[in-house]
Amino acid sequence: MKWKIRQEADADIDAITDIVNRAFAGKAYAGGDEADILNGLRDGGGLVLSLVAVLKGNIIGQVALSPAKIGTQRYLCVGPLSVTPQHQGQGVGSALMGHALGVAQSLHRDGIVLAGDANYYARFGFEKAASVTHPGKLADHILVLPFTGAPAGGVTFHPAFNE
Ligand SMILES: CC(C)(COP(=O)(O)OP(=O)(O)OC[C@H]1O[C@@H](n2cnc3c(N)ncnc32)[C@H](O)[C@@H]1OP(=O)(O)O)[C@@H](O)C(=O)NCCC(=O)NCCS
């Protein structure tokens, strides 16, 4: 049986929190606050989209979109993105990203921005952009996928990211 992807429901929230914590546990790059960020986005009205992957009634992955800016351009931020350790490497993360990118394109923003590992996100078309700046510790990890033209300026994420 293959997983299905759908929007989150209120009843999923505890399971989503658990998945984010398990996926990021022990990762050198994890801040340990990824679940708090997601809950902060939800509570702060910053969740443009929250998708879950469901296998046999169990949530095995999640991805979120939130509003962001690069300069005055209207971007979306993708993340957190998590898949439970036992289901990684089976295409769940790619499928969640594919859905999220499709929705993002339909929302007529200027593009997508995230803070993450270029080795992973390059496969979806994300790249570094010298004209995009960030004042915080994430500066070296900012990746963009522009829809409308070259992005330029400082990145602003939703306050839930506690930059
Ligand atoms: C990153 C993550 C979401 C990918 O989910 P997934 O379901 O395993 O992804 P897929 O099965 O679609 O793709 C797996 C591919 O990604 C690669 N990959 C996974 N993490 C990677 C990383 N940090 N750097 C480079 N490649 C990575 C795997 O090597 C594999 O490559 P292949 O397709 O060439 O074999 C999942 O590993 C995860 O939850 N990791 C912990 C949390 C995290 O790092 N989230 C992303 C940062 S916000």
Automatic annotation (TrEMBL):
It comes from the Bacteria. Keywords: Acyltransferase, Transferase. Residues 3-149 form the N-acetyltransferase domain. It holds the Pfam family Acetyltransf_7. The keyword Nucleotide-binding does not apply. InterPro entries: Acyl_CoA_acyltransferase, Bact_Acetyltransf, GNAT_dom. GO terms for molecular function: acyltransferase activity, transferring groups other than amino-acyl groups. PANTHER family: ACETYLTRANSFERASE (PTHR43877:SF1), AMINOALKYLPHOSPHONATE N-ACETYLTRANSFERASE-RELATED-RELATED (PTHR43877). This is N-acetyltransferase. It comes from Octadecabacter antarcticus 307.
